[in-house]
Design brief:
241 residues; mainly beta; 2 domains; 9-stranded mixed sheet; 22 strands; 8% helix; 53% strand; DUF4097 domain-containing protein
Length: 241
């Protein structure tokens, strides 16, 4: 009984530390959608029946201490709708002096010593172009209809079914995609490519007359839409659809 009471109290404490955030924004014809959720756990993609994006975030920053500083902001242009997470001055005021270098070589403050637990559900209409950027977030979808681009650092990408062009990139995460039809190009610097598909010798790239087994190009089932999968150290899983 004591263990049950402790578990119940822990559950209540966790719920009390969470903040629920929801934002909706209309999508104009021809606009691509770009979401930049710097620190995240899971980013789940779903389809809705309205011409808008809906983002639902469950937020827990340092057991609730930083929750009030969190928000989702939007920026619009004629060609792009951007949504991004904002933490105000929370991490600056509580900096542990931990930094990382961004792709331009500039140093940025990192929340590595903070407990940041943020999960997202992103609901978008079908047949749009969606770009997702994150340092720690992993992207998951059961079904995606449209063009999808990912730019991740440590997060994974898992896609069960899709119809569109995919350009998937993560540095150290795993790419796990079920492929039916595609013009496939998959490569990893030090990771391994796994698949239950049949590949010919000609599908593997060559370097100095040697087969490179972590770079594969193949037209799958006559597909014409591009599927690029790229990692540095993460593994790639290409599953037969």
């Amino acid at each position: 009984m004591k263990h049950l009471i402790i578990m119940a109290l822990l559950s209540v404490m966790t719920l009390n530390a969470q903040k629920q955030v929801e934002i909706k924004a209309p999508i104009s014809k021809g606009q691509e959608v770009f979401v930049n959720f710097k620190f995240a756990q899971d980013i789940k993609i779903q389809h809705g029946n309205t011409n808008e994006i809906i983002v639902r975030a469950t937020v827990n920053i340092d057991d609730g201490e930083g929750n009030d500083k969190y928000s989702i902001k939007t920026e619009k242009s004629s060609s792009q709708l951007k949504l991004y997470s904002d933490f105000g001055d929370y991490f600056k005021n509580r900096s542990r002096n931990v930094y990382y270098s961004n792709k331009d070589g500039k140093k940025e403050n990192c929340n590595c010593c903070h407990n940041t637990d943020i999960n997202y559900i992103v609901i978008v209409p079908r047949n749009i172009k969606l770009k997702i950027k994150s340092i720690s977030g992993s992207v998951f979808t059961n079904v995606y209809d449209g063009d999808l681009v990912t730019d991740l650092i440590s997060g994974d990408v898992t896609i069960k079914k899709y119809n569109g062009e995919l350009r998937l990139k993560t540095i150290s995460g795993v790419l796990d995609i079920v492929v039916n039809k595609a013009k496939l190009n998959a490569k990893s610097v030090t990771g391994t490519i796994y698949s239950d598909m049949d590949f010919d010798k000609s599908d593997f790239s060559k370097y100095n007359n040697k087969k490179i087994h972590n770079h594969i190009s193949k037209q799958v089932n006559g597909g014409t839409l591009l599927l690029t999968m790229e990692t540095v150290s993460g593994n790639i899983y290409i599953r037969k659809g």
